[in-house]
Amino acid sequence: MGVDNIIGELFDGRYRLERRIGAGGMADVYLAQDESLHRRVAIKILADRYTRDPGFVERFRREATAAAGLSHPNIVSIYDRGEAEGTYYIAMEYIEGPTLKEEITERAPLPEAEAVGYAVQALQALEFAHRRGVIHRDIKPHNMMLTPDGLLKVTDFGIARATNEVEMTEVGSIVGTAQYLSPEQARGHSVGPQSDIYSMGVVLYEMLTGEVPFTGSSAVEIAMKQVNEAPQPPSTKNRLITHGLEQVVMRALAKDPALRFHSAREMADELERTRRGLAVSQDTAQATAVIGAYEAGEATSVMGAPPPTAPPPPPQAKRSAVPWLLVALLLLASAVVGYVVYQQLQGSDQVKVPDVRGFTTKQAQTQLVQAGFTTAVEHKASKNVTKGQVIDTDPPHGSEVDKGSKVAIIVSKGPKSVTLPNLRGKTASQATQAIVGLGLPVPTQTPITSKLPVGQVVRTDPKAGVIPPDTVVTLFVSTGNVKVPNVAGMTCDGAKQALAASSLQGSCTNTPSDTVPAGQVISQSPTAGSQAPQGSTVSLQVSSGPSQVQVPDVTNTDYHTAQKTLQNDGLHAQRSDCLASDPAIPDGTVVGTDPPAGTMVDPKSDVTVFVADSTSTTPCP
Fold first, then answer.
1. Is the pLDDT of residue 592 over 60?
2. Is 500 buried (19+), middle (13-18) or exposed (0-12) by CB count in 10 A?
3. Quick check: is 310 in a domain?
């Protein structure tokens, strides 16, 4: 139908497809906007080559039916299902996060507490499904999504089937992913809750070690190993795994379903015991002991006390090995028959996906096209694979899938970006711990003046936000000092307000000034632009106006003497002759001044000098 050709348009008149976000063996998954309910959803669309195959269509419909009835926090919700554009689709909850497989590929082995936490959530989902009669049948980390807040959700019930549903007509077929198949699935036998528990054991094993218990060059080789070989204890690949957790894993991986946990709830409870540091239950201890005995060929009973000691039997002839050979041949035949039927169901024209890890996108596309596949390109963050190089493919390299299938090339876009938080107000120590906790290098520190208390972070370089994972952050740390503002020309009150805004105080002192108007700041100490401790005081010199002089006493002198005296004090003399009130005062004698002697006047002021003159008609003041 060419869904890729209508990206951006409405699908089924409701869902606007934005981009392809995943691919599987039978369907592709797209991110879409639900125009009716205004929410983002994931649309799973059956691949073109399967739309005319009633078996695949039925399987696809079964997924929707099985999952739609399962409402649980750890199960991806199904919103809608239908038929459009010549194919079938399912609309489901969109999880903005990686798959557990991607997390394992990126970080394995996962810390024990984290692995147990994810396993418990998955088991809670399975317990909920099992109680409603639904067996998943394809449990693997690819079908587990992780939300940004650490919640795990199980998805892809594509081959789930109700426990009371009639068996498929193709008896002996195996369905699922070989690395995670239970032995009974590998044989093509009936499955039950214990089959999902075995697969969960494989997932937990992979989280703790970074590897699955069994690998091989083909699906049938892996399936035979699931049936016949004992897994290596996970502690042989990760010595940090505790003994109790290893016992839980090994019991889940028991070949005999009767020896596994009776329910997903029981396995989750056992994992919770190990998380609290408690020993495993007696049932698990006994089961793992019996499993070990069977693997060594020494078991005599299953679960419970050993049989009582009996007297030695009489000598008898050596037992023939023929029965054991027949059993082995029957097991092998069962696996081969199951695989053959599976191949018939899937189509015989299957091709192994080549290993293109480390290739460029173009090189990988060339290899895959030559192998008979179509390709799509997806990008994913990786701290281990150089940007632009191929991390792996989906389906992964080594898988056998139908020729002509679409294989997604997963290309590294470099390490994951890191979100740097706003660290303003944190102490330098707190900020350093936060930065190192993000996996970033230890930051550098630069002192800076600031209103913040000494030792607190003022800002960072780069600023808060998304940054590359190898960025060295610079912390600008407050010295406790502030920059002294320039308050010259302000009034005393205005200058004090400006200083207070910079966490400083002001102290005003009046000083005469011939150049600065009265009431304005003449100077300050410390000077503007210098640094001063927060809360310290800045001394302000405020103009009281020009400096004044005192009019000298020049009475009883002559005018010329008075004039010179006034000039020496910076004043101007203005002569005024007058008739003295005392006739005995000789003419030419200074009898007074205006302003009078002792008066404070501005420099260069005019001073009137009264001189006695008997001919004057104006009396002296």
1. yes
2. exposed
3. no
